[in-house]
């Protein structure tokens, strides 16, 4: 499963969402301004910063999760391929 932590005003988030849509990659979006627990998670993986987009990939087979900050679509596709999560 791919989760993108985002805000409504983030241009980088809008760009990555468009690219994911174009590539047919399924994802969930969590607005860190509306979800304090999500904001805490983002800060925990970004040195205390609320940097978005933060992408979290959790393989269904229980493998190691992948977390990326402001990734390119190429990085996301590579991580999905390596994690065994279908797009």
Automatic annotation (TrEMBL):
Q: Which GO biological process categories is it annotated with?
A: cell redox homeostasis
Highest taxon of the lineage: Bacteria
Q: What is this protein called?
A: Mycoredoxin
Which InterPro entries does the entry mention? GlrX_actino (IPR011915), Glutaredoxin (IPR002109), Grx-like_ET (IPR051548), Thioredoxin-like_sf (IPR036249), Thioredoxin_CS (IPR017937)
| A UniProt-annotated Pfam family | Glutaredoxin
Q: Any idea which GO molecular function terms this record carries?
A: electron transfer activity
The Glutaredoxin domain extends over: 3-57
**Gene3D superfamilies (UniProt xref):** Glutaredoxin
């Amino acid at each position: 499963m791919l989760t993108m932590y985002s805000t409504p005003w983030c241009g980088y988030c809008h760009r990555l969402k468009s690219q994911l849509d174009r590539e047919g990659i399924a994802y969930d979006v969590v607005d860190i301004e509306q979800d304090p627990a999500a904001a805490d998670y983002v800060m925990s993986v970004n040195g205390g910063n609320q940097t978005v987009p933060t992408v979290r990939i959790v393989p269904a087979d229980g493998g190691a999760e992948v977390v990326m900050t402001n990734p390119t679509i190429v990085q996301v596709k590579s991580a999905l391929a390596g994690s065994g999560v279908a797009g």
